[in-house]
Amino acid sequence: MAKIKLTKNELKKKKDALKMYERYLPTLQLKKQQLQVEVRSVQSRLEQLEARKTSLEKAYDAWIAVFSEHERARSLDGRPLLRISSLKTDTGNIAGVSIPIFQDVEFERLVYDLYATPPWVDSALTLMEQLLRTQMELEVVSKQRDLLANELRITTQRVNLFEKVKIPETIADIRKIRIYLGDQQTAQVVRGKIAKRKVEGAER
Question: Taking a C-beta distance cutoff of 8 angstroms, is the pair 52, 134 a contact?
Fold first, then answer.
């Protein structure tokens, strides 16, 4: 810990620093509370998406074996029937943190031979779209959670620094300087009285 100067100027600096810490701490505490609420909300959304993904995967398992048996379930040029054409996201701001916002996923279904392809393919493709959409949203929401959790960690560290280190240290420094300056003032008064007595004694 750096040695403090026991002066009036240092006392003023410490008082100003304490005011600043006490002014910013409530803002940091509010930000921490907001982030905690948002992290819980995002975590809840993640759990919903995970449950939906698991449910869709179970439903899709039944189609996988059928797809593997029917190589005809492809486009006319042999490519898979379904592909993601675009992922639509936006950017939001929560407690000063920029996060991605999931909007939608667009798919492209390639042309296939209606006569050679089994009739259940459309239902399977719809289910696949739902599964892929859920997976893509899950990735975006996971990114939200990571960004917010990181900001919460940093904000919590700052709150702890102010509450447990900076403010207590500054209060202790102010007290130490005040005691020293008070002792100096008392000593100065005593020296003044002694000097006055000596002068008065010499005059007699």
Answer: yes
